Amino acid sequence: MALTPYRIWLATASATCAALLFLPPLRLILGVLLLIHAAMFIRGIVDLRSRFFCPALFAGDPGSRQIALTFDDGPDPDITPDILAILQRYGFTATFFVIAEKVRRHPDLCRRALAKGHTIACHDLTHGNLSNFRFAQRAEDDIRQALEIIQTAIGRCPRLYRPPVGLMNPHIPRALKRLRLQCVGWSRSGREGGNRILANIRRIGALAGPGEVVMLHDVLPNPVCRAELLFQIDRLCAEIRRQGLRPVSVGAMFGVAEYA
Length: 260
Ligand SMILES: [Zn+2]
Prior knowledge:
With 260 residues, the chain is an alpha/beta fold.
């Protein structure tokens, strides 16, 4: 059994709790230790870069001049074709972390992205409000079902996975290991809330940089943001070209398999 930061945390947290029972005079020190443990656990949940629960890919080598564009939450017939058109105009490829239920409704969009040289990766089965509260076997079953839907659509089974909202829980790593999935985070985000925050969409165009894994969304919850989003993605592509960066898939950036 591999010694992950989470397992070490589990051992030291248990020891601290036990010490609290048997060494009451030290309760102040042990209480502080437990608070530190709680903070570590919360950071592990909300920050993939902590690699607390499992290893995650989130930034490449800045000296490589590579950049990885990633789009979450699609495919969406209202915006994905336009994003594909922009990428094609620049000759760029990207990685799409798709939602399986949407893939089931729009398999043609996934196939079109694949045919244009983009990578299809797994994001979630439904991306519902409770997606991050799936534990034990349920977590594995949902991810497995998502993989099966994607494989039915594109004929290939993804090996890259990004948890919804980037949140982890102690049960996801076991599912990823059994399904042979690699967890992928990001180094730069539009922070546009799945394209709900128009003010932040206006910052997307400035996210380019060497070695960055840029996380955006190809979903359109608010039609008002459509024109601005496409304008900013075009600006981002122009900036990538201006900096002489080379857009690559996540698999190519980190040298990992993208499909089974
Ligand atoms: Zn998402």
